[in-house]
Structure formats: structure tokens, C-alpha cells
Design brief:
Blueprint: H1 2-18, E1 33-39, E2 42-53, E3 58-64, E4 70-78, E5 83-90, E6 95-103, E7 106-113, E8 121-131, E9 134-142, E10 150-159
Antiparallel strand pairs: 1-2, 1-10, 2-3, 3-4, 4-5, 5-6, 6-7, 7-8, 8-9, 9-10
């Protein structure tokens, strides 16, 4: 009985460590790291920590601005749908759920935000790696079902160099 249990535990450990090792799960890894984030709207320098979680199956972003705004996103590649999913929550109570794909060196996630007493707002967020040290995130919204898009966040992520 003990040997069967040991074999089962070894098999489960091997499965858990390789469940998310394929190429598709690694498409968003360019975003992993500690970042200083600036944008064209103001002079604030925000901080973002992006890390692998759950044996490499998920990516967690923890974002903070100097003015006290905080948000977190949970990201995962869904093997069944072959799409990426993100759930974003922040300290204003916003919940944003997006899904999409990595194509042509750009991660693009979209989703609809329902606002009470207003028409739905479409959201499209892109992440593009320009180098090992720079990722650009652009967030667009549309109030006309995607016919026109307005840039609402133009984030420049610069990797924080580790202290030696």
C-alpha cells in the first residue's frame, strides 16, 4: 500500500510540474519581473511586480501608484479554449475580465465592461515587449462596439535592475 501511494505522489508531482510547461503557457513570460511604470497622462512613477504563480500556470501582477491606487491581475492560458484570460481588480471596486491571444509579438486581451445606466464599454489592452528591459502596455476603450477606440492608458514598463 505504501509503495502505491509513493508512486501516485511521484506521478502527481510530475504532472503538476509539467502541466503548464508548454510553449503557449510561456507566451506572456516576457512581462514577468519588477517594473517601474510611467505613462503619458502624468509624471507619476508606479510600481508593478509580475510573477509566476501556481507552478507556472498563472501570472500575477501587483500594481501600485504613488497616489494610492492599487490593482491586481490574475492571468492564465486556458488549454481548452487556447486563449489567455485576465481578471483585474482594483481598490476602486473595478472588475475587468478580458480574454484574447498572443499574436505577432503582441498580447491582446479584450472584454466588455458593464456600467449601470450606460451602454457597455469595450476594453482592449495590448502588451508588447520591445526589449528585455521594456514592455509597453496600451489600454483602449470603445463606446461604439469597437468602431472607434480611445487610448486611456499608455504605460511604459521599464525593468527594475536588481541591487547587487
Amino acid at each position: 500500500m505504501t509503495s502505491k501511494l509513493i508512486i501516485l505522489l511521484i506521478a502527481l508531482t510530475a504532472f503538476a510540474s509539467s502541466a503548464c510547461d508548454d510553449k503557449s503557457h510561456r507566451q506572456f513570460d516576457f512581462w514577468i519581473g519588477h517594473w517601474q511604470v510611467t505613462n503619458s497622462a502624468n509624471d507619476e512613477v508606479s510600481n508593478s511586480k509580475v510573477s509566476l504563480i501556481n507552478n507556472g500556470c498563472g501570472i500575477l501582477e501587483e500594481y501600485q501608484t504613488p497616489s494610492g491606487f492599487e490593482g491586481k491581475s490574475l492571468n492564465i492560458y486556458d488549454q481548452l479554449s487556447k486563449r489567455w484570460h485576465q481578471t483585474w481588480i482594483d481598490n476602486t471596486g473595478l472588475l475587468l475580465q478580458l480574454d484574447g491571444e498572443f499574436k505577432g509579438n503582441v498580447m491582446t486581451l479584450t472584454g466588455e465592461l458593464i456600467v449601470p445606466h450606460n451602454p457597455p464599454v469595450m476594453n482592449k489592452i495590448t502588451w508588447q515587449r520591445f526589449s528585455e528591459e521594456v514592455v509597453v502596455q496600451r489600454w483602449y476603450t470603445s463606446k461604439d462596439n469597437g468602431e472607434t477606440w480611445e487610448l486611456v492608458f499608455d504605460g511604459y514598463y521599464e525593468r527594475v535592475k536588481p541591487d547587487n
